[in-house]
Amino acid sequence: SVTWPAMDALLAEDPADNADVGIVHFDAHTDLLPERLGVPYCFATWAYHANERLGRGERLLQLGIRASGRDRGHWEPSLGVRQIWADEARAMSPEALADTVVTHLRALGLRRIYVSNDLDGTDKHWAAACGTPEPDGLTPAHVEGVLQALAGKFQLMGADLVELAP
Burial code of 88-124, b = ≥16 C-beta within 10 A, e = fewer? Predict the structure, then answer.
């Protein structure tokens, strides 16, 4: 639940004022519910609300998704997000994934990026000390490759690391 307060502080209420902002979100889960058990702002809803503040348009880029009640065919068209599910990402080299991410963000004209790294986006082999470890996730090389590719190409607005539960 730490990501939403950062998003609330960093993103303007009017999506037009966030026209150059994107979010790169590593996670096994989409966090795209408008509410969970009647709670509008929590760990499972922050990405939905941040995406609304962005004005949709594929400016929320999710990497490593694989534990969802709905498939990509639901999330991308209904909420205007861009997703690279874990199986697709793992089929790419870390460099190819990084290039895909940078190319996507540049094509949208984004300059400022927020990075949210939920550790369960990384395979449980490397990230077992998280709240919800999941198999078949990203490798550390994929995550590091994307982060290195973003450095120097975009202004980093902020970042978080969530689900660390040693």
Answer: bbbeeebeebbebbeebbeebebebbbbbbbbbbbbb
Distance of CA 40 to CAs 31, 35, 47, 85, 97, Å? 12, 4, 11, 25, 32
For the entire predicted model, the pTM comes to 0.97
Query: How does pLDDT run across 95-127, given as a tens digit for each residue?
Result: 999 999 999 999 999 999 999 999 999 999 999
Question: Is residue 156 within a helix (H) or strand (E), and if so which, with residue range?
Answer: strand 155-162
Give the DSSP H or E segment for 87: helix 86-90
Cα–Cα distance measured from residue 54 to residue 23, given in angstroms and rounded to the nearest whole number: 9
The two structure tokens encoding residue 26: 């590593």
Query: How large is the C-alpha radius of gyration of the chain?
Result: 14
